[in-house]
Amino acid sequence: MNMEAKKLKIYDISDVSPTVTAGGDDMGLQVAPETEVGVFLKTLDPKLCTRYAKTLFDAGFETVRDLAVEEEKLITYAELLPGHAIKVSQAAIEALIGKPGKDTEGIKGLESSEVDMRRLAGSAPSFPIDPIPSRAKVENWWAQVISWSRLWSNDVANYLVELKSNVNEGKVIFDRYSFSIEQNNYGGNKLMQAFEKSEHVMSLFTRTQKDKPTLMTLMTIIAYTHFPRDEHFLTMMRSKFNEFPSCKDKSKLLGQYNSWCDLYDELKAMGQMVVQDNEAVVASFKRLIKQIDEIQQVINMGDKLMGKEFSIDELKDITKREAIKWARQSEGKPKPNPTPTPKPKPTIDPKETPPKEHKGYVGARDKLEVCPHWAVDRLPSCGHEEHGTCRLGYTNHPPHMKNTNPKDILDKYKTIPCKNWKAGECRFGDKCLFGHE
């Protein structure tokens, strides 16, 4: 074996002797066809086998199940080009679970079974544990169940897709698909495990349905309960569509646009939207965008140039393009704080606080002043000395000022009119400190 051939020697995990190949485009490397990765890539595209087989094997991707991962992992760990990574990853997933709408067919040289697929799928998604979950939450759970079931049966997944949109035709839909009794029982038992924490959904089933659960029975009951399609429901949906609210904030247009499209698609699936460009559809969509001036200007300009109104598809394209742009612009802006920090209350200096008027004695000033009936000997007693409480409301009774007749108080003697005298209520008479004129 020459030196070049030694460099191209590929390690084979099987008991078969290593195979040596040379040449080919790209890197000139090729794994022995007896290895699982080599068989898979060679079946998918010989050029991919030539270029990536050794790299993938050396990075630890030894089986097809190892390749059924996110494209980023193949790009990061095995240095695949993005386009090749997508192709390899999708092909590996389809090899394990089959293509939607077709029977699962394994690639030659590989072994796959429904038991392996069920192991890959794991447990069924848990049902919402709310006392009575909203329609939106149940719809989200239903979508997860579809994804889970498609991992082990495309027929079951496609049946659930149709059942949600046509609840009243559950038996007819079931007869269209060929999933087995065993698959029906397996799905039912897995779903019962997913329901065990929800008292609401468990109360919907009879004892027999709990003891012998089938996927068709359980999902039909849930669909009847949470996705009704009676006349009342259709009337409510049509009313909601015809009165769809206008968007006032263009940064939120994308979300409301998607909500409108979801509602439209649901009505269309129920046969309520036969003609796409009918007046009701156009009117509902125009109501959504009527307060967005930028889009209205584009529509008006287009109507003048084209000489006709935009179709609903054209209106949706224009709106979606602009809505995505505005949503991206709003992501970079700082969001206002919904709970701003309250401003601290200003501190007031007690020295600057204006004195309060004394309410116990008409004409009296601040209670901190010396009680005039304590300081002036000719005035009646205020009761402080006898009872310990001033009946006039003053709190300042210094012992050294008792009956000392302070000049500042005497200067006011008889100079301030007595308000009680004018009201005929002064009980001090001539001894009153204030003037009775």
Structural class: mainly alpha
- In percent terms, what proportion of residues is strand? under 5%
Count, helices: 23
The dominant shape is elongated
Distance between the termini: 139 Å
Q: What can be said about the biggest beta sheet?
A: none
* Succession of helices and strands: HHHHHHHHHHHHHHHHHHHHHHH
Mean pLDDT: 75
Helix content: 40-55%
**What is the CATH topology descriptor of the largest domain?**
DNA polymerase, domain 1
User: How big is the Rg?
Assistant: 44 Å
What is the subunit organization of this protein?
Answer: single chain
Number of DSSP strand runs: 0
Q: How many domain modules?
A: 4
Indicate the low-confidence ranges by residue numbers: 1-33, 100-112, 353-367
CATH class of the largest domain: Mainly Alpha
What are the key terms here?
51% helix, disordered N terminus, mainly alpha, DNA polymerase, domain 1, 437 residues
Question: Please, could you describe this protein's structure?
Answer:
By secondary structure, this protein is mostly helical. It has four domains: 110 residues, DNA polymerase, domain 1 (Orthogonal Bundle); 106 residues, no CATH class; 101 residues, no CATH class; 80 residues, no CATH class. Helix content is 51%, strand content 0%. Helix 2 runs antiparallel to helix 3, helix 11 crosses helix 14 and helix 17 runs parallel beside helix 19. The longest helix has 20 residues. It is elongated and about 125 Å long. The N and C termini lie far apart (139 Å). The N terminus is likely disordered.
